[in-house]
Specification:
Elements: E1 2-5, E2 8-11, E3 16-22, E4 31-37, E5 44-49, E6 56-58, E7 66-71, E8 76-81, E9 90-97, E10 107-108, E11 112-117
Parallel strand pairs: 2-11
Antiparallel strand pairs: 1-3, 3-8, 4-5, 4-9, 5-6, 7-8, 9-10, 9-11
Length: 118
């Protein structure tokens, strides 16, 4: 089970940190990632981190502003979002998979809404 938290309303230029709590499996065996779905658009990749936390990947649109991290003792993955822009407004989803983080990943959270006002 994946449960996201930390979404909310923030002004442009502000910051938020999303959390995703993982349970029911061995967290350290899973690659983790974040996707987002802006209003009226398709779900898109944001960031991912490998099972050991040593490799990270980012969408070009968030590079330099967002940081993904994980705490394998707390079974939690984080997404630190800085310098937020109105175009970052979306429902953010956490994903987990033992092989690849992509649209076909095995496990998904319910999503948390991030709204960035201009």
């Amino acid at each position: 089970q994946l449960v996201e938290s930390g979404g909310g309303l923030v002004q442009a230029g502000g910051s938020l940190r999303l959390s995703c709590a993982f349970s029911g499996r061995t967290f350290g065996s899973f690659h983790m990632g974040w996707f987002r779905q802006p209003p009226g658009k398709e779900r898109e990749f944001v960031a991912s981190i490998n099972y050991a936390g040593v490799r990270t990947y980012y969408a070009d649109s968030v590079k330099g502003r967002f940081t993904i991290s994980r705490d394998n003792h707390k079974n939690t993955v984080y997404l630190q979002m800085n310098s937020l822009k109105p175009e970052d407004t979306a429902v953010y989803y956490c994903a987990a998979d033992v092989y690849n983080i992509d649209r076909h990943s095995d496990y998904w959270g319910q999503g948390t809404l991030v709204t960035v006002s201009s």
